[in-house]
Amino acid sequence: MIVAIDGPSGTGKSSTSKAVAAQLGLSYLDTGAQYRAITWWMVHNGIDLTDPGAIADAAGKPGIVSGTDPLAPTITVDGADVSGPIRTTEVTSKVSAVSAVPEVRTRITELQRWIAESAEKGIVVEGRDIGTTVLPDADLKIFLTASPEARAARRSGELKGADVKATQEALIKRDAADSSRKTSPLAKADDAVEVDTTELTLQQVIECVVTLVEEKRAEK
Ligand SMILES: Nc1ncnc2c1ncn2[C@@H]1O[C@H](COP(=O)(O)OP(=O)(O)O)[C@@H](O)[C@H]1O
Ligand SMILES: Nc1ccn([C@H]2C[C@H](O)[C@@H](COP(=O)(O)OP(=O)(O)O)O2)c(=O)n1
């Protein structure tokens, strides 16, 4: 059972995917964390992020490993735990530029396909291009959406003290960059089920996705 969950920032992809995977005994992969990890390595190593050629040349260098237990997901770069550093505002503001470079996407996409193939009990993979590009044959594809106001309120709730308006502007800017890049942009697959989470609680979204997975399992 392979489940692809895509959508813009703050729609509930990570929280929903982790809970669904834990409830159904599936593995879990946060692909955004992988793009954040490669971005963190580039910042840490002084790569010029205004130069796509420099990003492409460095794309194969960091060793990225994702732990796929939904109750304790991990992410390391060359053996170091980077789960904290990949969430800084600096990485968040630079991740779209790095993840737009085709050589970065090819490398990370290969890694994602290998992780999905190796997941014996199945996996929930969340990101931006999972249903369209990474796993186009996924058993179930979900596309989560929510109003920009709801997404910004959720995000600024996490970043203690963050200004909701500034958070909303940064989020809209990142979504625009992720949606307009040439290589596998953020997009809904034609066969994805769209769930607008604006008026739903997280628990309702989880229940909705669990039901959809169980229906697919029954069909198999
Ligand atoms: N339906 C929802 N209602 C309210 N808060 C939510 C909902 N879904 C997620 N959240 C909260 O919003 C924040 C962002 O969710 P997250 O799962 O990280 O989104 P994404 O992975 O799409 O960026 C988290 O703090 C999460 O608990
Ligand atoms: N499959 C993916 C996943 C993420 N990305 C890029 C684009 C996103 O802005 C960044 C960060 O993704 P992440 O899911 O961590 O972002 P948020 O949790 O929504 O803040 O990575 C991507 O290009 N393709």
Automatic annotation (TrEMBL):
Subcellular localization, as worded in the UniProt entry: Cytoplasm
Positions annotated to bind ATP: 7-15
Family, per entry: Belongs to the cytidylate kinase family. Type 1 subfamily.
Source domain of life: Bacteria
Top-level EC class as recorded in UniProt: transferase
Gene for this chain: cmk
Keywords per UniProt: ATP-binding, Cytoplasm, Kinase, Nucleotide-binding, Transferase
Pfam families associated with the record: Cytidylate_kin
Record EC number: 2.7.4.25
The protein's name: Cytidylate kinase
Biological source species: Streptomyces alfalfae
GO molecular function: kinase activity
Catalysed conversion reaction: dCMP + ATP = dCDP + ADP; CMP + ATP = CDP + ADP
Domain Cytidylate kinase stretches: 3-214
